[in-house]
Amino acid sequence: MPDRANLLTPAHEAAPRQPRSKTDLFLSFTWLALQGFGGVLAVVQRELVEKKQWMTRDQFVEDWAVAQIMPGPNVVNLSMMIGGRYFGLPGALAALAGMLAAPLVIVLLLAALYGSVADSATAQAALRGMGAVAAGLITATGIKLIAALGRNAMGLGVCIGLAVLTFVAIALLRWPLAWVLLGLGGAACLWAYRVLGLRETGAAK
């Protein structure tokens, strides 16, 4: 019988490694969470794809897209998806605990500290500087992941077009995120469904 990871991994790809245990999941996501200051997407991609190799780049793009549209923090959703893929519900809970336990303690301590300096011009300027760095990290990671879109069912051109339309809708037109997800996201799903259906029909002939 195939194992859980093989059942839930897309047929066109397979990650070269996998978590050794639920403890490995907990410790790995704890370390990942402690690095995620401001630009968590960049850290997640580097740790899970490049270092641990629990996911291929294609898998990361697909799973991150699902995590984006689910309620709650994206990286928390992704951690539970990975934990559940390999160890079921206990794995999902172990990954979730790793993502939340240590950062929760640190955030509470920092919140108490920040409360005493929140009105300081220096502290406010520092936070604005961190925002610029976080934006750069997210942009750099997005550029690195463009190569994976070449193997997308819709094709690289359509994917880039949808990405540009999404940027325009959110950054320039300031549309609500729910509208963008339902509109552009729904159109992308329908187009991909149509392309895959045509491929299956052609293969059947």
Question: What's this model, at a glance?
Answer:
By secondary structure, the chain is mainly alpha-helical. The protein has eight helices and no strands.
Radius of gyration: 19 Å
Q: Please, how many helices?
A: 8
Instruction: Estimate percent helicity.
Output: over 70%
How many β-strand runs? 0
Mean pLDDT metric = 81
Which term fits the overall shape? globular
The fraction of residues assigned to DSSP E strands is: under 5%
Largest sheet: none
Structural class: mainly alpha
State the separation between the terminal residues, measured CA to CA. 31 Å
Write the element-wise H/E pattern from the N-terminal end onward: HHHHHHHH
Low-confidence stretches: 1-12
Question: What does it look like?
Answer:
Helices cover 76% and strands 0% of the residues. The longest helix is centred in the middle third of the chain and has 42 residues, at 74-115. It has 205 residues and is mainly alpha-helical. The relative contact order is 0.10. Helix 2 crosses helix 5 (74-115). It contains eight helices and no strands.
What are the salient characteristics of this protein?
mainly alpha; 8 helices; 76% helix; disordered N terminus
List the helices and strands and how they pair.
Elements: H1 4-8, H2 22-35, H3 40-51, H4 57-69, H5 74-115, H6 121-144, H7 156-172, H8 177-204
Helix pairs in contact: 2-5, 3-6, 4-5, 7-8
